[in-house]
Design brief:
2 copies of one chain form a homodimer. Chain A is mostly helical and about 160 residues long. Chain A is about 65% helix and about 0% strand. The first copy, chain A, has 8 helices and no strands. The longest helix of chain A has 26 residues. The radius of gyration of chain A is 16 Å and the shape is globular. The N and C termini of chain A lie far apart (about 40 Å). The relative contact order of chain A is 0.18. The interface between A and B is large, with 37 and 37 residues.
Chain lengths: ~160, ~160
């Protein structure tokens, strides 16, 4: 493994560690626990499960891999904050979508070379990317790993 | 900037973004808010401020930079969970230590070359590091960036 491959491996190991930790938590929490708010007046577990699923689903086109699988989640779980009156998919449906999206991402991640990790993401034009080469796929991976850690820190309050 | 420098820059940008976000939050919260629990029965803001400070302070020797500046924080903020009966330093003292430790880390980070980021951290022996080259400084940076994001996700509940 050369140094560039090692840099990528470190970032990916970090992502996979966060995913695994979240998987374990989602497997451990009951549906009743996931229906609870993480703190008084704050998002419920089910909302954060849907939110993380939708945000990871959006990575599929953002990283220029493929189309979103669950575009219908975006409105309720990204655009809107949690709302007890909203009609959500069931927890088992959301858990299945969570697994599917992360498996798809993992398969794409495995295939990228270090140079491809440094290619632009889909929210930056080729012209702007010339001037701002840090706006690449790996940058997005870092920021979404933190995003997951952020909400994981809230989800553990359901235990 | 070559690719190896870019890989390091991405990881460091991510760290600094989390630090900046936390700084802003700590500056925004009043002392009264920081004395509150982040959720019922969970850690108080002051505890998480001390915890993050102590964990970042421990990075100084863990990354083989220098000795800890505030070793006295470790017992109350890392070994022990939050405890209303514990004697904590004042919030202003903790905030000053938080800034000092992060400034020291930033200065060391700036000086490291990509190759030095891939050198071992202090919890792995040179012999084990031969077999496990991912146990390096950059790996620790990734994991502590997530650690910060995790607790930031809890601290925002004080707002």
């Amino acid at each position: 493994m050369n140094n560039e491959q090692l840099f990528v491996k470190l970032a990916l190991d970090n992502w996979h560690a966060q995913i695994k930790r979240a998987d374990t938590l989602f497997d451990t929490l009951t549906d009743e626990q996931l229906q609870q708010a993480t703190a008084p007046g704050r998002s419920r577990g089910i909302y954060l499960l849907g939110h993380l699923t939708a945000v990871h689903d959006i990575l599929l086109p953002l990283l220029r891999f493929e189309e979103q699988r669950y575009p219908e989640l975006r409105e309720a779980f990204v655009v809107q904050p949690d709302n007890a009156a909203a009609e959500f998919p069931s927890i088992s449906e959301l858990k299945a979508a969570w697994k599917t999206v992360n498996e798809k991402l993992a398969a794409h991640f495995e295939r990228l070379t270090p140079a491809e990790w440094l290619e632009r993401h889909n929210s930056v034009s080729p012209e702007d990317f010339e001037k701002e080469p840090h706006r690449n796929r790996l940058n997005v991976l870092h920021s979404r790993t933190n995003h997951l850690a952020h909400h994981y820190g809230q989800l553990v309050y359901l235990k």
